[in-house]
């Protein structure tokens, strides 16, 4: 502080204080008053009297609510509640005002107090004094203070000319909305510190500004129509604002754009005025600040940012506004230990434990774990995935709380810079909790983003062995840049819509903002999704009016398209369906694979490589046979293993059911809406509901695995579907002993406990056969007898016996795990028992699975430890069983993702129906050529067959013979055409195409179109799915036309193989076609056959 020569403070440094009136010279009026003390009271006395009356009137107003409550007859509780509410509001209000005063005083005295502490003025600091990381920028604060009044003028103009008209136009009730006062005050925003980071790239500059705004801002608004006034008077805002200058260019102004955002949510405190005073009520105060902070976060907190382009025609504006994440961190929240006890009982005399849960936060991404009751060492075992946008800067924050009915108790927190995870790749540590006691166990994995699909199978295989709860691990991320739309349809009355977009992937839906009064909206928003399997997932886009009731357009995009696109990116216009003829949407879609690139992690082998480790020929173990028994080389299941059969239940129809529906209080008799429930062996099935029919036809097939245990029964119940409680229509029971002995049962069963009704069932026992020679015929027959309402029929039965495991990894390096295993095929899984604390568990358990497509399905085995996660996994393609001896593998298998092995037996059995003619195809099991003609009817309503078994075998297998003549110049299509007499339907199955013609450099995207001539309308047109870039597509799709046989024989089936010329074009390229005269085809055969494709001028059947 500058001082005068005499050692006294200079007048400039002395604080200003109002002088005492007694020290001032008396004025003329003062002299007059003194000389005439008995004069009447002047204006000062009148002012004092008015002040006293005003104070009395205010205190009198306090009694008005009491009087009104008594006059209305309300309880005194309402008065007490209002008084408590007022006192709470007054307290919050005073605390905010006091906080603002203290903050302003600290800000005003900051320089003076600092200079007083250092015994020198800031102007006298030597040049060598500096701060290592954060630098003070007083010159910048002086510039901000100089600009602040002009910024206030700009804000006043912006609010009055731009924001106010927008608010008035958004709602008819706000047509009188106006800003009555806009003042930023005299306290400017201060930049406490500046930190400059070395740019991650040469074309950018990164600045972190630690800003503090403790201002006397005053903004008042008014809605004159409702006499409503509100506003803000005083505000505190503190946070770290990151400013990125990029791209750096070679022309003025050198910087192409400025991006600004808060790395973490800033702290906010607002002092309300007017009607918004109500927001200072306890409870609403913190809620209002939270809502406003959420609005700021949606605009200025990562991943959102404000972009200000400085040059015209800036490239990649969308990429700058919403850049791709730097990476993904997979957070494994494993456990905590040594937490403090917060629960107390009997007024604190008895100390309990805590009910801990954890909050994991990275930027705006927040995850909450489950609550573990009464535990100071909780085990969570949960996994979360967070996107990291800025390194350095962002932090992983974990807060642990004790769950309570009123307010949760704080147990501690930890913070970690994400840059440390990036540097380490994988971190698995116990982190101490700050502001509390105990530690939290985290495993953090940095996942890099790959711009190609080369390692997708490797990532998917790895994810199958990752234990993840509550969501499965992700294999990729998708970033959708939603730009604009054109020519959307108008609403009724030719009104402009208010379009918004809903983007969905499975059960995750995100929405864009609404753009008002336009059919050519511009959104310029980015959306991010995690993908578990990009090969099978789809992006669903719905363009709707802001009311969500009117759909303006739709788009479904298979994400597999991105896997073949350059750099996994699509940047183009997309045509909308269910919309106008020229309605389209412009989007940029960017996919990136998530790859864990760390030397600590060993990825499993890619599917298709031999997954078995045959240890049969290992040298015997050394040592005593008593201390270490020889290691078994094969399993030893019991004699009942592999003896299961499959029961195929065909629910055909019912007759003479009773009517349960009544109308008009029972005066009008209706019908029933019947359905069937089946129960067998602990499993239950349910048919579809047939509306308003007492003689319903279901024609549905169900399959269940059964054993040869005697006394089993199939329970069948028929119900009438109602809105409240379903009505009973009858029941019957079928003993399985005759079916298991004879193999087939076809009967009409009388329904019991009802006056009338009977049910037609057909049951067949399928015995698995250990040979793959009949698999193709079984798949062919299954496609023929497949009903439209039933699930896909099983072609094989897989029996698995899991005996034991060895060499499983230890827990925490020394303790053995408590392992269990999970066996799964598709959606069906089986979990074994848990064996306590051993690395060599013995399970001795078996499981059976129905297999629809043995060539493409696989057995997935995962070994996990109770509370420790994955110990290893195995993926066994069933195609390996098809080439094994007797379709069986029985040995040790090496586990992926760990050092262990498992001993199991897996055997496959082909399910051959004895009533479909397939048994005649194999000479091993059918020795009589006339066995086929002895069956009166084929399974599933196939027509009568009188041909011999060798003829049938030739009909089903000749088309796949390697000695067949080569395809024509345009290729061939494989079709099955037959008539399903039981359902009175013409059925066509499009199997595949081969050797299609390639006109250009790229292979076509073929699909098959079918049309029944002479009709050319949409009613008879059918279309298969489209296959990408192949000359030999596989379809295996079924199409049906309901018509009598006589009409089908008068039709011609026109089959066209086409290819889309481009995604944006509606034109289709004809690759070839064939026309089949159904009168010349034996529709009772149901055989697959290859047909030569011809051009449009020369079409006919082959």
Automatic annotation (TrEMBL):
* UniProt cross-references to Pfam families, sorted A to Z: C2, SMP_LBD
Please report the record's description of how this protein sits within the membrane: Peripheral membrane protein; Multi-pass membrane protein
Could you tell me which residue ranges the C2 domain spans?
310-431, 452-578, 626-749, 775-897, 969-1091
Instruction: Report domain SMP-LTD positions.
Output: 133-311
Q: Indicate the transmembrane segments per the record.
A: 66-89, 243-263
Gene Ontology terms, MF aspect: calcium ion binding; calcium-dependent phospholipid binding; phosphatidylcholine binding; phosphatidylethanolamine binding; phosphatidylinositol binding
The family database entries (SMART domains) matched by this protein are listed as: C2 (SM00239)
Q: Which GO terms describe its biological process?
A: endoplasmic reticulum-plasma membrane tethering; lipid transport
**Keywords, in A-Z order:** Acetylation, Calcium, Cell membrane, Endoplasmic reticulum, Lipid transport, Lipid-binding, Membrane, Metal-binding, Phosphoprotein, Repeat, Transmembrane, Transmembrane helix, Transport
Instruction: Outline what the protein does.
Output: Binds calcium (via the C2 domains) and translocates to sites of contact between the endoplasmic reticulum and the cell membrane in response to increased cytosolic calcium levels. Helps tether the endoplasmic reticulum to the cell membrane and promotes the formation of appositions between the endoplasmic reticulum and the cell membrane. Acts as an inhibitor of ADGRD1 G-protein-coupled receptor activity in absence of cytosolic calcium. Binds glycerophospholipids in a barrel-like domain and may play a role in cellular lipid transport.
Q: What is this protein called?
A: Extended synaptotagmin-1
Species source reads: Physeter macrocephalus (Sperm whale)
């Amino acid at each position: 502080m500058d001082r005068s020569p005499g050692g006294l403070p200079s007048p400039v440094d002395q604080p200003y204080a109002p002088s005492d009136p007694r020290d001032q010279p008396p004025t003329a009026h003062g002299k007059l008053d003194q000389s005439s003390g008995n004069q009447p009271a002047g204006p000062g006395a009148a002012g004092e009297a008015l002040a006293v009356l005003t104070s009395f009137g205010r205190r009198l107003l306090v009694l008005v609510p009491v009087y009104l409550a008594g006059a209305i007859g309300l309880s005194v509780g309402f008065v007490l509640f209002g008084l408590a509410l007022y006192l709470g509001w007054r307290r919050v209000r005073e605390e905010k005002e006091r906080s603002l005063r203290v903050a302003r005083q600290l800000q005003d005295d900051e320089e003076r107090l600092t200079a007083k502490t250092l015994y020198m003025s800031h102007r006298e600091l030597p040049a060598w004094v500096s701060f290592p990381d954060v630098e003070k920028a007083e010159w910048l604060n002086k510039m901000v203070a100089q600009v602040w009044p002009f910024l206030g003028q700009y804000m006043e103009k912006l609010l009055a000319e731009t924001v106010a008209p927008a608010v008035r136009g958004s709602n008819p009730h706000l047509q009188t909305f106006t800003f009555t006062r806009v003042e930023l005050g005299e306290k400017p925003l201060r930049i406490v510190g500046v930190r400059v980071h070395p740019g991650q790239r040469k074309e950018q500059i990164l600045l972190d500004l630690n800003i503090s705004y403790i201002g006397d801002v005053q903004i008042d608004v008014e809605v004159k129509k409702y006499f409503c006034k509100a506003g803000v008077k005083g505000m505190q805002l503190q946070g770290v604002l990151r400013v990125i200058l990029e791209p750096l260019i070679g022309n003025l102004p050198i910087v192409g754009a400025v991006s600004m955002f808060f790395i973490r949510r800033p702290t906010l405190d607002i002092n309300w005025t007017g009607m918004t005073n109500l927001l200072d009520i306890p409870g609403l105060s913190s809620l209002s600040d939270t809502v406003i902070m959420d609005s700021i976060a949606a605009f200025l907190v990562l991943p959102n940012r404000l972009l200000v382009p400085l040059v015209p025609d800036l490239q990649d504006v969308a990429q700058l506004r919403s850049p791709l994440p730097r990476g993904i961190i997979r957070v494994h929240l494993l456990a905590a230990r040594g937490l403090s006890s917060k629960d107390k009982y009997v007024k604190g005399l008895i100390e309990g434990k805590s009910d801990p849960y954890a909050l994991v936060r990275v930027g705006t991404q927040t995850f909450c774990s489950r609550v573990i009751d009464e535990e100071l060492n909780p085990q969570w075992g949960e996994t979360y995935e967070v996107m990291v946008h800025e390194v350095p800067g962002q932090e992983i924050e974990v807060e642990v709380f004790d769950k309570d009915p009123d307010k949760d108790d704080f147990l501690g927190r930890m913070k970690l810079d994400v840059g440390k995870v990036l540097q380490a790749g994988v971190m698995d540590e116990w982190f101490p909790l700050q502001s509390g006691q105990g530690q939290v166990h985290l495993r953090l994995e940095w996942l890099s983003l790959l711009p190609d699909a080369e390692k997708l199978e490797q990532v998917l295989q790895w994810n199958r062995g990752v234990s993840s709860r509550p969501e499965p691990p992700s294999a990729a991320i998708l970033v959708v840049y939603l730009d604009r739309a054109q020519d959307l349809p108008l609403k009724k009355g030719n009104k402009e819509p208010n379009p918004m977009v809903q983007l969905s992937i499975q059960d995750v839906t995100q929405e864009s903002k609404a753009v008002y009064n336009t059919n050519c909206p511009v959104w310029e928003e980015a959306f991010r999704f995690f993908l578990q399997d990009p090969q099978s997932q789809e992006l669903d886009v719905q363009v709707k009016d802001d009311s969500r009731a009117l759909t303006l357009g739709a788009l479904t995009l298979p994400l597999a398209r991105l896997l073949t696109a350059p750099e996994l990116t699509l940047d183009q216009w997309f045509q909308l369906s269910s919309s106008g003829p020229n309605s389209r949407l412009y989007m940029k879609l960017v996919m990136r694979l998530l790859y864990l690139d760390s030397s600590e992690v060993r990825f499993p082998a890619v599917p298709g490589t031999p997954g078995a480790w045959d240890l049969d020929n290992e040298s015997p173990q050394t040592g005593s046979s008593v201390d270490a028994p020889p290691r078994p080389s094969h399993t030893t299941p019991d004699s009942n293993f592999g003896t299961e059969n499959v029961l195929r239940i065909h629910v055909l129809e019912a007759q003479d059911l009773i009517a349960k529906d009544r109308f008009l209080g029972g005066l009008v008799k209706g019908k029933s809406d019947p359905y069937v429930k089946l129960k067998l062996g602990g499993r239950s099935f349910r048919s579809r509901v047939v509306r308003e029919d007492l003689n319903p036809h279901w024609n549905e097939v169900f399959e269940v695995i059964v054993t040869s245990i005697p006394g089993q029964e199939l329970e069948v119940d028929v119900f009438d579907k109602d809105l409240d409680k379903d009505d009973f229509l009858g029941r019957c029971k079928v003993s399985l002993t005759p079916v298991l002995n004879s193999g087939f049962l076809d009967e009409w069963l009388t329904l019991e406990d009802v006056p009338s009704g009977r049910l037609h069932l057909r049951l067949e026992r399928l015995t698995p056969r250990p040979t793959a020679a009949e698999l193709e015929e079984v798949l062919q027959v299954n496609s023929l007898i497949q009903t439209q309402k039933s699930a896909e029929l099983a072609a094989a039965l897989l029996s698995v016996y899991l005996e034991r495991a060895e060499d499983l990894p230890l827990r925490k390096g020394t303790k053995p795990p408590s392992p269990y295993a999970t066996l799964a095929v598709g959606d069906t899984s089986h979990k074994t028992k848990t064996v306590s604390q051993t690395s060599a568990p013995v399970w001795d358990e078996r499981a059976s699975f129905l297999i629809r497509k043995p060539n493409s399905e696989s057995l997935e085995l995962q070994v996990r430890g109770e509370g420790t996660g994955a110990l290893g996994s195995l993926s066994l393609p069933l195609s390996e069983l098809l080439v094994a001896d007797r379709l069986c593998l029985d040995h040790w298998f090496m586990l992926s993702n760990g050092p262990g092995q498992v001993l199991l037996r897996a055997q496959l059995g082909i399910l051959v129906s004895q009533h479909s003619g397939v048994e005649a195809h194999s000479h091993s099991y059918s020795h009589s050529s006339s066995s086929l003609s002895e069956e009166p009817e084929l399974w599933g309503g196939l027509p009568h067959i009188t041909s011999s078994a060798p003829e049938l075998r030739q009909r089903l297998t000749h088309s796949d013979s390697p000695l067949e003549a080569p395809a024509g110049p345009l290729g061939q299509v494989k079709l099955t055409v037959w008539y399903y007499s039981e359902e009175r339907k013409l059925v066509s199955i499009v199997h595949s195409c081969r050797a299609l013609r390639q006109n250009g450099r790229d292979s076509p995207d073929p699909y098959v179109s079918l049309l029944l001539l002479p009709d050319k309308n949409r009613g008879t047109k059918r279309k298969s799915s489209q296959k990408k870039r192949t000359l030999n597509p596989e379809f295996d799709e079924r199409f049906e036309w309901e018509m009598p046989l006589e009409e089908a024989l008068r039709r011609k089936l026109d089959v066209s193989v086409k290819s889309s010329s481009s995604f944006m074009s509606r034109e289709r390229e004809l690759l070839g076609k064939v026309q089949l005269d159904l009168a010349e085809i034996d529709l009772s055969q149901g055989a697959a056959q290859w047909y030569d494709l011809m051009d449009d001028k020369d079409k006919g059947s082959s």
